[in-house]
Amino acid sequence: MLEVILRGLVFIIAAPFVGGLLSGIDRKITARMQGRRGPSIFQSFYDVRKLLSKQVLIVNSLQHMLVWGFLIFVVFTGVLFFAGEDILLVIFSLTTAVMFMVMASYSVNSPFSAMGSQRELIQMMSYEPMLLISAVGFYMATGTFNIKGIMQANIPAIVYLPGVFAGFLYILTVKLGKSPFDLSNSHHAHQEMVKGITTEMSGSVFALIEIAHWYENVFLLGIVGLFIVSNQWWSWIIAGIVILITFFLEILIDNTSARVKWDVMLKTVWAITLVVGGINIFILDIIR
Questions:
Q1: Nearest to 115 by CA among 286, 262, 9
Q2: Which residues cross the membrane (predicted)?
Q3: Average confidence (pLDDT) per 10 residues, the chain, 288 residues
Q4: For a designed S-S bond to 59, which of 8, 70, 108, 130 qualifies (C-beta 3.0 to 4.6 A apart)?
């Protein structure tokens, strides 16, 4: 129990620093790819500090409460994951967090915000099946839904789940809000809906959203590592390398892809889920 509490505390304290740094590195690499110098890798921290100092313009008190709910459930999701708890519970907690975000956006009378919320729900429809298939795949490969048990397997899960891993990397682009799937919200200036789901959020409220995304990004990259980690010490090094490669590829895809329409996103994500994920699970069921 003490170990679980310590892991959770480490995530709560360290994740925003790691997530903020990753956000800054993302912006720096993006600028270099676009032929610009770019901001400091610490710019994300400066931006959040400035947001926290600004006057808060709350459209209604319900929105503020729902944004706090989004942050709390994202943190709770990460704590469950890094504490080594049940991966199904982790996925359900993440879904609950996103629903708080959607409700916060829907709570205001704004066409941009409402459209962003609708697109966020469509994105959920597209990536949720792959998340569940990933959880089922971990169980079939290791015999447990417990994250700590998955990490202690003799053989890394990716050996049994190459298709599921490929499918998860595909939906990761959706979850990270990268092009070509940045439909509901975008950190780039080319977002045609102003700021989509976060249009009516400003000041410290918007800062909470940014911090929540830092926590979420660390957690999502942690799932990438879960495919690689086993009871061998060297697997942690390989997992770190795979996470860094994945992070760079997401930035590369973001800067070389044009946004697609929601129906294209839905069809392609479901197709990838059924083909690479479904076939992988089917073959694994036969050989195991």
A1: 262
A2: 6-25, 57-81, 87-108, 153-172, 205-227, 233-252, 264-287
A3: 85 95 94 89 92 78 89 96 93 94 86 84 93 95 93 94 96 90 64 64 86 95 96 94 96 89 91 93 88
A4: 108
